[in-house]
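tool_log.txt
---
The assistant was asked to compare two proteins side by side. It first ran the structure predictor on the initial sequence, then on the second. Raw inputs and outputs are pasted verbatim so the downstream comparison step can read them without reformatting.
(1)
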Amino acid sequence: MEPINKKNVFFQYIDRLNTPLEVFILQESDTSTGVGPHWHYYLEMLYVLHGELKAQCDNDFYILHPGDLILFYPQAVHSMHRAPDYTGEVHYFVIMIDLNFLNITNEYRTRFSKLFRIAYQQNPDYIHFRRHELQELPILQLLTHSLEEKRRHDYGYDVMICSDIASILTYLMRCLKQKGVDTDTIITAPDDYDASIYSISKYIEQHCGEPLRVHELAQMCGMSYSYFAKLFRETYNQSCKEYIEFTRINKAADLLLFTNQDLTYISQETGFADCSHLIRTFKKWKGMTPKQWKKSLK
């Protein structure tokens, strides 16, 4: 693989509300062309089961053997192909997740995104974890369990998968510490972003049932509207308005699944003007009405 030509890079669009996480196995053979340079807003991990895989992140190259894992932080340009000197098939897990969907505190979501990005900038080898470094982690068991949960799609499958992914990411953070990476300094070091932009998402989640106006949220962060809007999109990969809708629809979906409350009650609890507003917004994000969505899960 040659250094990445930015003209050949494509943005991989993923429906982040309806598909906030993916777990699957890819196979590369003689007839496969691999996956060309692309980027997206997900954190992505590759774990090799069989064969040799050549991966690229920006202009850095990696050869992965069975039991190796590589991590691509959100918005990293990356690609993967069967290693050129390897003639057999290559099988590998692909795990992709929107960190906003990960069922952990906002503080740790921020840590994961920031740590792996800065660690890569310090040393590109820090995103490549060899088999011997993962020996104490039952990673194959966790990935197989996540794949089965995704396939079965039973009640609470997303919680189970998020738990598996959080376990893997936490272990990888510990691996970086063992490599000598000062994770505490990285996490607490000043960043390009104002710290208030991280805490505002927690406020939105806690107050999504109340009226929320972007200009008022900007004032809470001590920022102008335009700067806040720009910084929010850079941090969360969506506009503040979209994030508010995202949070409200997720809460509405939980109430639909876990309670017998009617749509009038749910619309009031999730900050929608009325039942019709909830139905229109739900259909925009989910592609179907709340009633149709709930019925599809039975």
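(2)
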Amino acid sequence: MVLRLFCVLMCLAGSAQAFELPHDRGTVSLDAPPERIVALGWGLAELLVELDVAPAGVADPEGYATWVVEPELAADTVNVGLRNEPNLERIAELDPDLILAADQQTGLVPQLDRIAPTAYFKMFSADHDNAAKSREVYLALAGAFGVSGMAEQRLDALDARISKAGDRVRAAFDGPVPPVLPIRLLTPTSVRLHGENAMAVAALRGMGLTAADPGAPTQWGFRQARVEDLAAFEDAAVVHFDPFPQKDALFGSDIWQFMPFVRAGRFAVADPAWTFGGAFSLGRLADTMAAALTRIAEAE
């Protein structure tokens, strides 16, 4: 009887330590939670950090620091190459227990699987809600690590952060807030307009604000246009996400100065925020857009 009880307890202890991570191509099953994880997508790296899990390696951590900004990666995070061309040798040298791959590594999964068990997540698709997908992946990771309760609390705090950002904007305008057009200027002649299925638009809706150009859903949530096409948005508040190294060349041009939203004082530059990140990128997107929109309201 004692022996049987001991065996049952040992089985329960073993199952409690097991790691089961469902992903878009199956399930990764490990005997214990992984200690050395390589994250090849910035959004996946972000989700790990928000679970208090520090990835051992990340693709282009310097780019992450420039574009994603928060949450910060650990200083000793190893650079494992580019997101669309990771360094397989460097990944193997890290001897990871688990690799997390996303959209830009779709064709590399078989090679990655030969290095370590690989979980693949299609984070961006026109066939699903990108923001909801990231929350789903976050909760799957949390469940595998056994911290679902903490994850739910952090998502609740995220939603509250986004809602408060919207409150700040409404207070600044002290009246109706114009529809908002989030953009990223690429060159002095080309621009991305963020619309349906964009993380920036998901942030706007969480703020209780209206997107100026939602359009039909696309995989990445944007459409590319010519800068002169922005002239059609006469009534919108236009918010551009930095960085944009060529801003002086564009902002000093005649075509830019004649844009209706520029002449009306409804244009502002937001601090860097990653528009293709994970669920928690919405918090930074909301805060940076709120700060930009507040500057517009205060200038009126």
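---
observation on (2): Residues 3 and 196 are 60 Å apart (CA to CA). The two ends are 80 Å apart (CA to CA).
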